[in-house]
Design brief:
Blueprint (H helix, E strand, L loop, with lengths): L11 H19 L2 H21 L1 E6 L2 E6 H29 L6 H24 L13 H9 L2 H16 L2 H17 L16 H37 L4
Antiparallel strand pairs: 1-2
Helix pairs in contact: 2-3, 2-8, 3-4, 4-6, 6-7, 7-8
Keywords: Membrane, Transmembrane, Transmembrane helix
């Protein structure tokens, strides 16, 4: 980051404006939004084969029972490693610029979400096989939203909200809100539920229906990371600003 020396004279308004501008430039220079999104995109996309091959699927005339053990094997350590890598990237970039890093709350939030997911998934796996929710009937919409919120892709969105607050990053906030709308309300409802009629033919079709939402989430995070990286490069030469 570079700063320009400006003579403010005796004008307090000019001095205040310069201080605000410098503060904004420091905040923008601290942002590594694209790193966080690309790391999370990679973690999400790598999760697909784990979920595919470790999915336990037992079907009979009454329907199908799923045990997505790959999620439990993969996501807790993957999330911890991802947030650790993001935190290290922020700290290194801050040291190179001689700035302080405010990424610790974000890293803590990420670690907490990993623990929350593990506890919620373990409890659900232990309880619901012998106590199916809603007697096998259609799941209420609020249950689907809650299920997605405590899933890894929902918890990623919550952690991104924390990062947008720490960075005072309005574009990231807008991206995260759109991402949460996609994850909670738009993704196909086959995710984590019983097999719908249109995919009930083969195990491969059912596994595909489980992998599709994760693929969508991974692509969205990847596109967001690429977009923020391009915005950073395009704005840096003109004013030293970063996205």
């Amino acid at each position: 980051m570079t700063t320009d020396s400006v003579s403010t004279g005796d004008d307090p308004h000019r001095l205040l404006a310069d201080v605000r501008d410098l503060t904004g430039r420091v905040r923008r220079d601290q942002r590594l939004t694209w790193v966080a999104l690309l790391v999370l995109a990679a973690v999400t996309l790598v999760a697909i084969p784990f979920d595919w091959f470790f999915l336990k699927l037992d079907c009979d005339d009454s329907g199908c029972v799923f045990a997505r053990r790959g999620m439990l094997y993969y996501w807790p350590p993957a999330l911890l490693l991802a947030y650790a890598a993001i935190a290290v990237s922020y700290v290194r970039a801050a040291r190179e610029r001689g700035l302080g890093a405010r990424v610790l709350p974000y890293a803590i939030t990420g670690a907490v979400t990993a623990v929350l997911f593990t506890a919620a998934y373990t409890a659900a796996a232990a309880y619901f096989p012998s106590n199916p929710p809603f007697d096998g009937g259609p799941m209420p919409f609020w249950w689907i939203v809650l299920d997605r919120l405590i899933a890894p892709w929902g918890l990623i969105g919550l952690a991104l909200l924390v990062l947008s607050h720490l960075e005072r990053n309005v574009p990231l906030l807008v991206f995260t809100l759109a991402y949460l709308v996609l994850v909670l309300l738009v993704l196909p409802t086959t995710e984590g539920m019983s097999a719908p009629a249109w995919v009930s033919g083969t195990n491969a079709q059912i596994r595909l229906s489980m992998a599709l939402p994760q693929l969508i989430v991974g692509v969205v995070l990847l596109a967001g990371g690429i977009g923020f990286a391009r915005a950073r490069r395009s704005s840096s030469p003109a004013g030293g600003r970063s996205a």
